[in-house]
Amino acid sequence: MREGRLADTTDHIRRLQRGLLPPVIPEAFAGDTRLVGRWRNEPFEYELPPLKDHVLAAKYSGEGMASVKIGRETTSAPAAAGTITLAPRGHAGFWRADGVVEVSNIFLGHKRLLACADQIGNGREPELLDRVNFGDPKLFAIMALINDEVSSGDGIAYLFIEQLLDLVCLQLLRAHTATAMPMASGPRRGLSERQVKRVTTYMRENFAEDIQLQELADLVNLSRFHFCRAFRLATGQTPYGWLTRQRIAQAKELLKNPTLRIIDVAVIVGYETQSSFAAIFRKVVGLTPSEFRRRLRG
């Protein structure tokens, strides 16, 4: 289904709860993923349209029955602590719950799930299953950890949550798809050729700027940790190492121009100071920029 025909997730969860806005945390995570802290869900009946995100709920307490009717098929189960509910992206259905429950949510961006599927090397777009109060202790435990980190306010919580979200995607692919997702044999793949081209083109076009690792990871919808590993598997270099070599290669060309001062060259290729540029240049080339220029002159 086309993205433009998919409904806004937060808006329809609010309508489902009769106007109560879910407590979505302000930070957005890789792949347009959003998190909702623990909150109380009242009983409801709602015709849920196809949403743009995969909606996951982890249940911490509650009672009653819940169900979803899709076409002629109805799935129902009693509410129980430690279970999960999953409404996949693009699935319309009539949802009902007759009891009060306490949950936390993940509004998982489809781009993030696709990026994870690409990393395990199966080349197939995943089709997730609808789940109602389903027992998956591993997925619940991961979601509970995410909720703890959301509440902690710890300085490194954001990075920790990014890694936990990768685990959520892996568990969804392993245990909640319509057909088994075959894992690639041998070492895990790095970035695809298309992804490498996209990232390296961006670096070439912007190497004079202060490029942040998150910028590069966002280009391929991966966490920073996952991106660094995938880039190195694909190229044999770290993103920083690849960018540095591009900058130094350009600097060597610019140093052939005698009208440019060394500080000018440094700024053009993305270094704020001449000293930092000279240190990196010497590390890569084995000469300082001044020594390199003198050798060019013979």
TrEMBL record:
<dbReference type="InterPro" id="IPR018062">
    <property type="entry name" value="HTH_AraC-typ_CS"/>
</dbReference>
<keyword id="KW-0804">Transcription</keyword>
<dbReference type="GO" id="GO:0003700">
    <property type="term" value="F:DNA-binding transcription factor activity"/>
</dbReference>
<dbReference type="GO" id="GO:0043565">
    <property type="term" value="F:sequence-specific DNA binding"/>
</dbReference>
<keyword id="KW-0805">Transcription regulation</keyword>
<keyword id="KW-0238">DNA-binding</keyword>
<protein>
    <submittedName>
        <fullName>AraC family transcriptional regulator</fullName>
    </submittedName>
</protein>
<feature type="domain" description="HTH araC/xylS-type">
    <location>
        <begin position="197"/>
        <end position="295"/>
    </location>
</feature>
<dbReference type="InterPro" id="IPR009057">
    <property type="entry name" value="Homeodomain-like_sf"/>
</dbReference>
<dbReference type="InterPro" id="IPR020449">
    <property type="entry name" value="Tscrpt_reg_AraC-type_HTH"/>
</dbReference>
<dbReference type="InterPro" id="IPR018060">
    <property type="entry name" value="HTH_AraC"/>
</dbReference>
<dbReference type="Pfam" id="PF12833">
    <property type="entry name" value="HTH_18"/>
</dbReference>
<dbReference type="InterPro" id="IPR050204">
    <property type="entry name" value="AraC_XylS_family_regulators"/>
</dbReference>
